[in-house]
Design a protein that fits this description.
This protein is α/β, with parallel strands linked by helices. It is built from twelve helices and 14 strands. The chain folds into two domains: about 100-215 and about 350-430, Response regulator (Rossmann fold); about 220-345 and about 435-445, 3-Layer(aba) Sandwich (Rossmann fold). A hairpin with a 2-residue loop joins strand 13 (about 430-435) and strand 14.
């Protein structure tokens, strides 16, 4: 009897041991499957645009806010905001005679009308070329043109008009305030917005999932200038004179913060108004601080007049500027005083790029003038818009989806270069340094401040 019980106990122990081994094997298999699944999912997420290990705005560790002291509990703008609303099920309309795309830009009543007209012409050329290729299934595209005026609220009214016109998307604008107001209307009316002219870094930080920016912003320009002024050229005392408007205030903010983080806060910050012609008072205050370099942040006309007056007053310091200096108007007004000036540019108009050269030739024939940075980016932005419509059809939500999926247009190669969109749909592509030599701007890639990052653009090509 005892022997029988002992045999049963042994049998039970062996059975339990086998079951235990099966459980271990089964658990191990589950763990392996989970690891494989997570690896696949993480790989997919990692491929969606900006590398999660990269600092926001492509900032180096040296200039990233508070990086030296304490890691933040949460970093913003590293995960794209999704749109979960309705609309994808809507069928396209029938019997359309034209496919409408909106345009919002400064065309009258603004100090930057010349920039707005260039932007309109770049968009128009893209529309005309698309229609020559057959439009949308043999239906022509039509540009619905709106002036942004530059006043609070006016931009929202124009977006409402575009909604009434049944546009499928719209391109605009340049002015910071206008773009922000239009963006809020875009959210309410659910119209995809493609920004090709506003460099305000805060534009995409609104986290509104109905807009992308094709042009590089002032954050990248500021990083490029800080690197050039302090790291490359060795200055330590920089005075700033900037436009007394949102463009000047927001633009110089990133430069000021970045300069401070590398140990060289601005020695003085002076302001001027649009249309001002005499800057003697501001320049005298700057002269007292004995700077070893001066940065001008404003539109082409005022920047050129400031530069001429500086030289007339005996300033010998090297002068740097914001990207709006890259203009025939600046070179014409500044004359010989422009020699040696250094600024940034969102693209290289002299690049050895066949598509760029064809665009420049066609633009000159069509509009009897050379295209500027706003014309070139509007051309790229409109082509992106048209391609999105061609891919998904006439449905605003689906157009929005393909514009913001961080796959379809990630790495888009336009005439202004390769587009790299971060998780806020902001273009963080390489910036260029523009230097005046013998009366012309010469362009070179701006080296990255982060030794871990490589500049992808070459000297003369994209």
């Amino acid at each position: 009897m005892d022997t029988t019980l002992e045999l049963k106990e042994i049998t039970n122990l062996l059975t339990a041991e086998k079951m235990s081994r099966r459980d271990v094997v089964r658990t191990t298999n589950y763990k392996l499957l989970l690891i494989v699944f997570l690896s696949i999912v993480l790989t997919v997420f990692d491929s969606m645009g900006q590398d999660q290990k990269q600092n926001y705005g492509k900032a180096s560790d040296e200039i990233f806010p508070y990086q030296r002291y304490q890691k933040a509990y949460k970093y913003h703008f590293l995960v794209p905001i999704q749109f979960y609303g309705a609309g994808r099920e809507k069928l396209p309309p029938t019997n359309l005679k034209e496919v409408r795309i909106g345009f919002l830009g400064p065309l009258e009543g603004s100090v930057i009308v010349s920039l707005g007209k260039q932007m309109l012409q770049g968009a128009t050329l893209a529309i005309e070329e698309a229609n020559k290729r057959g439009g949308y299934h043999n239906i022509p595209y039509k540009l619905m043109i709106h002036n942004d005026v530059g006043l609070w609220g006016a931009a929202a009214n124009e977006v409402v008009k575009m909604d009434d016109e049944k546009v499928w998307a719209f391109l605009g604008s340049i002015d910071d305030i206008v773009s922000h107001v239009a963006l809020r209307a875009t959210l309410k009316l659910e119209i995809p917005m493609i920004n090709t002219g506003d460099p305000d870094p805060t534009f995409t930080e609104t986290n509104i999932p109905w807009a992308i920016r094709v042009i590089t912003d002032d954050r990248q320009s500021s990083y490029g200038l800080v690197n050039q002024i302090f790291k490359k050229d060795g200055h330590s005392r920089v005075a700033v004179i900037r436009a007394n408007n949102r463009y000047g205030r927001v633009g110089i903010k990133i430069f000021s913060e970045t300069a401070t983080r590398v140990g060289h806060p601005m020695v003085i910050e002076e302001r001027f108004n649009d249309g001002e012609t005499d800057f003697k008072t501001q320049l005298e205050r700057i002269m007292v601080t004995s700077p070893d370099a001066v940065l001008i942040w404003g539109n082409a006309k005022e920047s050129a007049l400031i530069l001429k007056q500086m030289r007339a007053m005996g300033f010998k310091q090297l002068v740097y500027g914001s990207d709006r200096m890259v203009s025939p108007e600046f070179l014409k007004i500044a004359g010989p005083s422009a020699e040696g000036v250094i600024t940034t540019s969102q693209y290289n108009p002299d690049a050895n790029n066949l598509r760029l050269k064809v665009f420049q030739s066609n633009y000159l024939k069509r509009f009897a003038q050379e295209p500027d940075v706003f014309a070139a980016h509007a051309y790229d932005g409109m082509n992106i818009t048209i391609e999105a419509i061609q891919k998904v059809g006439l449905n605003r939500v689906l157009i929005r989806d393909v514009l913001t999926d961080l796959k379809t247009f990630q790495g888009y190669k336009g005439i202004t270069g390769k587009k790299t969109f971060d998780q806020s749909w902001n273009n963080i592509s390489d910036i260029w340094i523009a230097r005046v030599s013998q009366g012309k701007f010469k362009f070179t890639p701006s080296p990255s401040m982060d030794p871990k990052q490589k500049v992808t653009s070459k000297n003369d090509s994209y």
